[in-house]
Amino acid sequence: MPRRAGRELRLSDSWRRRLPLLPALLFLILLTQVPFALSVYYSLTDWTVVPPGPREFVGLDNYRELLRDDFFRDAIVTSIQLTVFPVVAALVLGTAFALLLDRKFFGRGVVRTMLITPFLLVPVVIGLVWKNQMFHGLYGVINWVIEKLGGAPVEFVSEHPTLSIIITLIWQWTPFMMLIILAGLQSQPSDVLEAAKVDGAGPFAIFRQLTLGHLRPYMELGVLLGAIYLIQVYDQIAVITGGGPGSTNVPYYVFQRSIGGGWQFGLASAYSIVVVIASIVIATFALRVLSRLLKGEAAA
Amino acid sequence: MRATARASLIAMLLAGLVLAGCGGDDDGASGDRSINVAIVDNPQMNDIADLTPELFTKRTGIKVNYTVLDEGTLRQVTTRDVAAGGQQFDVVMIGPFEAPQFGRDGQLTDLNRFASSDQSYQLDDIIPSVRNALSYDGKMYAAPFYAESSFLMYRKDVLDKAGITMPQQPTWDQVADIARTVDSPDMAGICLRGKPGWGDLGASFTTVLNTFGGTWWSANSDGSVGEAMVDQPEFREALQFYVDLVKDAGEKDAASSSFNECLTQYKDGQVAMWYDATVAAGLLEADDSAVKGKNGYAPAPVKETDASGWLWSWALALPVTSSKADLGWEYISFATGPRYLKQAGERIPGGWAAIPPGTRESTYEIPEYKEAAAAFAEPTLASIAAAPIDNPGTTQRPGVPGVQYVGIPEFQDVGNQCTEQFSAVIAGRSSVDSALENCQNVASQVGG
Q1: Do A5 and B2 touch (CB under 8 A)?
Q2: Over the stretch B68-91, which tens digit does the pLDDT of each residue have?
Q3: Structural domain includes residue A29
Q4: Is residue A183 in some structural domain?
Q5: Is A129 within the bounds of a domain?
Q6: Considering the domain boundaries, does residue A117 fall inside one?
Q7: Confidence at residue B365, expressed as pLDDT on a 0 to 100 scale
């Protein structure tokens, strides 16, 4: 015991400060990195649970299989659609709402809370509400309005599965974008805006030439964080369509290939590794933007 | 500084203790009289979960810890637990798709050994087709708690008004004619499942496929999977028939409708006929149903075969990994034995009509049940008894017996992927040709 304590005393200052973090770090590694390493290993085997068979090492076979799989290619296309469209639309809508909320008016707090609500709901609930109360051919509000206006009812989920899911995702993610943009707007120095006004710039010119530039890093952050979450959307797909052409994205396909009926854990692991890599790429960009934002704020 | 080092050491030790604690979760459980049971979330199972403390635990001292899961999750959990060798549950609820396969692979305990030495259990009272479906090589691997077939439900008043009588044993062509005749803007002719999933659209469609003379795969003489048969004319004919019928005279939002959606629409008066599980009849004739007393029931429609109704059962099984097989059997004997059915009828909120149907012949001799379920008891029993479990179509099937599925593990996956394609055809987003081509590709990857 004395020997050990003595050695620890000799440790450099920075290491001594890091030491209390180690248990947490260890725990984190156990919880995240060990399973990840295991799935990398599984992705190199032909592990199939049903029917049970020997688990053999097959090298990169699963990854080769993945390139040949038409369904996987469709799932990638769907993943891209379900990520890009909601992120862009939510950003545009979120910016619009943020600009409105940036003004002072009576009841602003209440309005802001109500606008944030969609983001606080459980994704499964969002899916069920939209499927049954909004999109439904018989009981849906949207079709009720269409019929009142004299149109023919549209079976949204059946005929336009991708669009249906995109709409619910936009609804869910607009508040998130709004909050980030609102934070950006409120950090805008007011003296610059006043100076612009004195110089005779109209509100549109001010928005285009000053505000938009100021908001850019915030928008980038919103887009990247949104993309990281949206690339792994699962709940809405499971609830609204239960998969199928145009709504099975890569994570849902991984589910189907593994515990969703395929039971090919080796192959499914390979698919999921691909998702992880894509997420890491996006996350790296996100972190870079975030650190730039923080640096900028520290300098200001 | 010395104090910080010591504090961090303590923190690490504590973390170690916490981790060790996580691992030793079930140390205290061995030796006590409690069992873990995974069941499906349906009204009959919820009833027994409520009654277990009063009817079972009080008598035997065995505490039952229920985990209630929806069908999809239950299948994931039980397959993981049984097939992948987990040890979470002492008793699991499975169906005829799983029981013979798991039993064959040596993952379930043979229940005949327990059942034949248990006088009160009355093994021979179990309806033969159900028992057969849950057995492999003469050994019963799961005890049925509930069983169902499929049949055609129709609104007698609607058909009467149109001057139509339902034949004793309708054919699909007759049913399609009736559906197209009674179809109107306010009321669809028939509700058929269109939602992707091997247990949703896959189940309804496969019974149609069988009776049209088609099959998913041919079988080799040893019962293994032969060639994929999705590209054969019979398969195309069955799919074309199904899709056309749903498109012409089917329910709204057909491509996302399954049992629950059809139930809602039928009870709402939105459809005139409905082909689905026999268990639906109990819900249509319930006191709170708007269509109570207005319904007729006909056997599953046929074409090339004599009977086409499916067979499903929720049944309890003992994984070989459980160390409490004796306690597990005591529970299974209680839950699936004849005594519970009589006790439940007097106690459950739904009354006699809501007791678990289809498992025992003696159920259909209980006077109270016969009275409460007069409208559907006989058609249900007849459908279950007639379900062509061993010979569902016109050709031999690979794998273990099955009607609305093919008894091979890969069917779940193939069924899911193909029904997604078929559902897209029903929604008008794809064509029969391309769906069949994609499906044939998927099915060809199995066996061969």
Answers
A1: yes
A2: 988 878 888 888 888 777 778 999
A3: no
A4: yes
A5: no
A6: no
A7: 93
For A225-272, how does the pLDDT look when each residue is reduced to its tens digit (9 = 90+)? 999 899 989 999 988 888 888 899 999 999 988 888 788 889 899 988
Distances (CA, A) of B392 to B297, B305, B306, B310: 21, 8, 9, 9
C-alpha A120/C-alpha A129 separation (Å) is: 14
**B8, B72, B417 member nearest A19 (Cβ):** B8
Cα dist from B270 to A219, A229, B73, B182, B252, whole Å: 48, 40, 31, 12, 9
Of A30, A241, A261, the CB nearest to B412: A261
Burial class (CB in 10 A: 0-12, 13-18, 19+), A150: exposed
Per-residue tokens: B73:
């999750």
Single-letter residue type at A61: D
Examine residue A51 and say whether the peptide bond preceding it is cis (omega within 30 degrees of 0).
yes
DSSP chain A: -HHHHHHHHHS-HHHHHHGGGHHHHHHHIIIIIHHHHHHHHHTTB---TTTT----B-TTHHHHHHHH-HHHHHHHHHHHHHHHHHHHHHHHHHHHHHHHHTS--TTHHHHHHHHHHHHHS-HHHHHHHIIIIII-TTT-HHHHHHHHTTPPP--HHHH-HHHHHHHHHHHHHHHHHHHHHHHHHHTS-HHHHHHHHHTT--HHHHIIIIIHHHHHHHHHHHHHHHHHHHTT--HHHHHHT-S-TTT--HHHHHHHHTTTTT--HHHHHHHHHHHHHHHHHHHHHHHHHHHHHHHHHHH-
**Which residues of chain A are within 8 Å of residue B23 when distances are taken between CB atoms?**
none
| B272 three-state secondary structure | strand
Whether this model's pTM surpasses 0.80: yes
Band of residue B307 on the pLDDT scale cut at 50, 70, 90:
very high
Bridge partners, residue A45, by sequence: A57
pLDDT of residue A298: 60
Domains of chain B: 32-141+312-372 (3.40.190.10), 149-310+390-444 (3.40.190.10)
Q: Which of B231, B225, B282, B237 is nearest to B407 (CA)?
A: B225
Best residue in B8, B70, B260 to probe A by mutation, most A CBs within 10 Å?
Answer: B8
**Does residue A217 contact residue A149 with C-beta atoms inside 8 Å?**
no
Question: Which of B409, B417, B424 is the closest to A263 by Cβ?
Answer: B409
Which tokens belong to B343?
């006790």
The residue segments making up the domain with residue A50 are 36-111+161-299
Domain count, chain A: 1
Q: How many CB atoms are located within 10 Å of the residue A154 CB?
A: 15
* Residue where the block lists tokens 């030439």: A209
Average pLDDT taken over every residue of chain A: 87
Contact at 8 Å (CB) between B130 and B142?
no
B26 pLDDT more than 50: no
**B185-200 pLDDT, tens digit each:** 999 999 999 988 898 9
The CATH number given to whatever domain includes residue A284 is 1.10.3720.10
Measure in Å the smallest separation between the Cα of A262 and chain B Cα atoms. 5
